[in-house]
């Protein structure tokens, strides 16, 4: 799966517009992380069809900041589960650059060493 990052304006309707554009183009959003900062809204979108998502975003003048492979991992709903995963990565010199949950409850991670991280999970 691909994690695509875009930055939108922090205003009502921009997220809805993005989601509707992707849906209209047949792209399923598998996960998302949204924050706001100083009038902007950095968004990470986990999509099932990165090529189609990229095409839609570019056709609608949305700048893609990054497009990176995301690692998916099951995570248990228990105290310390995320700490164990992040500690395992840290102890093996892997930097977690982006992390969020998917719509199915899996963990989506963008890391600086995908192959090594896959082996650890």
UniProtKB/TrEMBL annotation:
InterPro entries noted in UniProt: ACT-like_dom_sf, ACT_dom, AHAS_small-like_ACT
Residues of the ACT domain: 3-87
A Pfam short name: ACT_AHAS_ss
Domain of life: Bacteria
Protein name in UniProt: ACT domain-containing protein
Species, as recorded: Anaerolinea thermophila
